[in-house]
Every structure is written in C-alpha cells, then in structure tokens.
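Name: Formamidopyrimidine-DNA glycosylase
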Amino acid sequence: MPELPEVEALARFLTARTRGYEIKRVDVASISVLKTYDPPPTALHGRTIDAVGRHGKFLDLTIGGLHLIVHLARAGWLHWRDNLPSKPLGPGNKSPVALRVALEDGSGFDLTEHGTKKRLAVYVVDDPAKVPGIATLGPDPLGEELDPAAFAALLNGKRTQIKGLMRDQKIIAGIGNAYSDEILHAAKMSPFKLANTLTDNDITTLYNAMITTLREATTDAGELAAGDLKAHKKETMRVHGRTGQPCPVCGDTIREVSFADSSLQYCPTCQTGGKPLADRRMSRLLK
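Structure predicted for Formamidopyrimidine-DNA glycosylase:
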C-alpha cells in the first residue's frame, strides 16, 4: 500500500506533468471505484488542474474548483502514460484499469487495481473534507502541528500496542504497515509495546525516529516516476518485507509476526531484547 512518502512523490510527479493542463475526459471502467456521484466525473471535463497534493494517504487533484480524490488502498496504483488511446475506456472492460484521466495533450494516467478485494476509491467533491476518510484524519507527521508535545499528547493514556497506534489514520495520518515497521526498528522499540508504558525518553526517541524515517523516505523518493516508486520502496526497506534476511544494523535474522491479512517484521536484537515475539497464527499452522 502506498504510504505518505509514495503518495507525496506521486503528488510531485503529477504536479510536474499535469498542473495547468485541461482535462479532456475521465473514463470510468469500474463503477465500484466511484464513492461519490454528485458532481459526476464528467463535471471535470474541460477544467484545468490547478494543484496536486495529499491528505495522509489520499491524493488530491484540485481541478477548477473541484477535487478528484484518490485512495489507492492495498492493491491500487497510478500508471502514467505519455500517449493514451484516443478511444474512451468504457465500463465493463476486463483489464485492471478502473479509471482513466485523459489530458488535452493526449497524456494522462490510469488507476488500476489487481486482486479480488476492490478497495481503490475515487471521489469527486467540492471540498476534501466531504471525503469521510479525510474528515477523520489525524495530524500529518511531517506537518507543523505535530510537534513533540502534540505527539506525546496523542500517546497519553492509550493502552494500545504502538504498532497499531501508528497505523491508525485517525491518530496519525499517512503511516501504514511498512513505515511503522521501519520507524519502530529505527527507534529500537517492540511493535507490541503499549503506548501508555512509554517513558518521556521513549516518546522522544519514537518521535525522532518517525520524523527522520519519513523525511528521508520522502526526500529519497523525490520526483521519481510513478512506475519506479514501488520497486524503490521495496529496495530501501530495512526490515519490512525482509523476513529471514540479516538486520542491516546488527546482523540478527529479521523475524515476522503474521496476522489474518498482514504481517509485521522486526529485529529481535534491536527491538525486543533478543526475544522472538509470539506468532500465534504460525504456531497454529505448525500444530
């Protein structure tokens, strides 16, 4: 799933290629991707793209007073094409393309989604706050409002595992499964540690690890082409997605805890005092 650094990079990429261009048409191939109906996507036709930004993991194209909001979810992606087919993309096509945005110069992008779980979401609104997921977002970790004091206040009294808390978009916007693993590894902190047990020093360490990890990832992604971001993210992960490989810091073997539809990775030496975390799902499979 694209997280804050990748969505920020996509926003920069689209800004360089779409700002000031007029939308020729928006083709909807999968009606399920649309989460709003008024105004319709056709209301974007003939309007100029003024800006591209983000809200957490939501991509926001400001288009002549309206907003095209995109949430790529787990299996969605944006594919830029310098030359789109001139024939409109109709509903019911069997390709993974769910929606296409064509610009006046013939370029544009496709939104695709693979797999059986269709969670890619597109909204056309006059105010981003009308998108439920944006209206309930917590502060942006790289925004001015989330200083160390505000971060400490978010954690105060919460009897929640820190891994889950950092992924909760209503608490902090933009961090998902991958970067929460990376942040906790940088902070040398167990993902199962409860937020209300953190000392002041722990909170400062976690805050600094969060800011440094996200800033470095965002800067490193720069204005990479949309097609290069997935591979770049995978290559730069230290622990996430690297089960069985050596930790780049201490050399211990990176381990995994599996859940119903996701998993986390961590280094026992760096994060849990050398003790492997219980993986109940794997234990059941081995019985």
